Amino acid sequence: MISKLLIANRGEIACRIIRTAREMGIATVAVYSDADAKALHVRQADEAVHIGPSPAAESYLVGEKIIAAAKQTGAEAIHPGYGFLSENAGFAQAVIDAGLIWVGPKPSSIDAMGLKDAAKKLMREAGVPVTPGYEGEDQSVERLKQEADAIGYPVLIKAVAGGGGKGMRKVDAAADFEAALESCRREAKASFSNDEVLLEKWITSPRHIEVQVFGDSHGNVVHLFERDCSLQRRHQKVIEEAPAPGMDEATREDICAAAVRAAKAVDYEGAGTIEFIADASEGLRADRIFFMEMNTRLQVEHPVTEEITGVDLVEWQLRVASGEPIPLKQDDLFIDGHSIEARLYAEDPAGGFLPSTGRLDHFDLGVEGRIETGVEEGDMISPYYDPMVAKLVVWGETRAEAIDQLADIAESVEIWPVKTNGAFIANCLRDEDFEDANLDTGFIEAKLDTLVSADEAGDDIWQTAADFIALAETEEHEDLPIGLRLNAPGRLNATLTHKGETRTVNAAASHVDSLATGFVDPERAVVFADGQSFVFERQSRGSGAAGAGDGAILAPMPGKVIAVDVAEGDAVTAGQRLMVLEAMKMEHALTAPFDGTVTELSAATGGQVQVEAVLAVVEPKEE
Hints:
It comes from Qipengyuania aquimaris. Its cofactor is biotin. Residues 120-322 form the ATP-grasp domain. Residues 543-619 form the Lipoyl-binding domain. This is ATP-grasp domain-containing protein. By secondary structure, the chain is of the alpha+beta class. The protein has 6 domains: 4-103, Rossmann fold (3-Layer(aba) Sandwich), CATH 3.40.50; 104-131 and 206-336, ATP-grasp fold, B domain (D-amino Acid Aminotransferase, Chain A, domain 1); 133-201, 2-Layer Sandwich (Dna Ligase, domain 1); 337-453, ATP-grasp fold, B domain (D-amino Acid Aminotransferase, Chain A, domain 1, 2-Layer Sandwich); 459-538, no CATH class; 552-620, CATH 2.40.50.100. 27% of the residues lie in helices and 32% in strands. It has 16 helices and 36 strands. Strands 14-13-10-11-12-15-22-20 form an 8-stranded antiparallel beta sheet, sandwiched between helices. It has a 5-stranded parallel beta sheet with strand order 3-2-1-4-5. It has a 5-stranded antiparallel beta sheet with strand order 25-24-28-27-26. The protein starts with a strand and ends with a strand.
């Protein structure tokens, strides 16, 4: 058995591998870039080696540095995780040539499945059903257009070296083919240094079905059943589940047997996934499920397979890499219950799904389900890497039970100030079509407007923020009974600003009757509800006149001041616009929190400001 393992990755997958290695008594070595110097995987590993600057191209993608780190620390083996160098046959061979153990398939297997056109030819020869299409060597525009016409529109143009949703174009009509081909080739060249393409028949009601396979060096190959990964946005998976809803036993046997044939065709060792596209217009049928590609590594969504089989796939990887046979035979494997995984991303769905980076000042994902993450409170979400914060995984006896569990977890996400897609995940899970398993890969795009929650706070959220503040202020002065605080007749007023809007809300200090959670500090109240965070700047405290410091107008985010409507000494009224801030291509009006006078003004038209910079101060009007 391997005694020391270097993990050539970062984030949640590095932490997940460390967990299993520790349980097996295997020492671990982490590698890290400048951006990850204080990362969780570095803190959890037994040793850590710095491998370069923050950009992946100068650190995690430099195989020579990773191999040198393994030799430096005495690690016997390298586990690549997923992404980065995990499907790089040249790196796998370099690891083996350095006398180290590669925890993955043989380089020849990676090569065989690395190019989509060659892989499809190989699969045809192995008796694996393949989507109708063209994978020929003639890459002329004329020949490709001729083949597309023969296949029939719509067709899909795919880069032969593609992955991650890049280098793919759907073409609906012959007149659009050449422009789509040019665009696809340009993207493929930039992403993979290879502009060759293949053509596939576009499946009208596509479901993304994949089968987990596992091989060893003794000639054994087993499958661990299927997963459904149909809920995708721009070809990136969002929610995955196992088993696939609507899959009957006969179809399952056919597709899983095809997956095993595919793995055996490339003499496969270790964990791999055979991906299929299913025409689900008439349900899942074996004669309408076609091979797409093979991922020669551990998948992001592997936990759902682990949950329904009771198998630790990382443990199997380490045992097989150490020369052991697969721990279980095919007849020993069975499906138990249903599991669903959602990818929690640091992104802003209401802002066009733009990535959200920064420090996790508040981070709480609860204690329910299985949480796979590479961060803790106080850690940074870096702009250099994939914005996935965590994988939220649940198991239930039924699919309905699993859906309900996962939706509850997504709705309970508490992360601030980084934004997440927690509410978006919950909306997907609560959608009636998802609950009824009416799925295809266009599900999210077709329903996007209904799945993205507005980030504007409703009246109930305003009330909750005010109540939290009232409760916090009462607890700060326990010697003052509720009802006598600042002479308030049983209630307090809280003046709050949220996204440029200011309200004075009558707040109850005696109780907070809300399902929302949150926290209060001297500057703000943050309310967590339905998977979102709502931030309210505190403009005054108590029910009496606010102090001068309570009138500070803060920049809610980094941006550019495009208009200033007041000058120092001006009298203003509550709600009056003071200035306009432009951020993320949107305009945000900042208003006066109450009647008063502008005593300070640091903002100027055209100036760039940072988040929470004091732009102006309004002193309240004397009573």
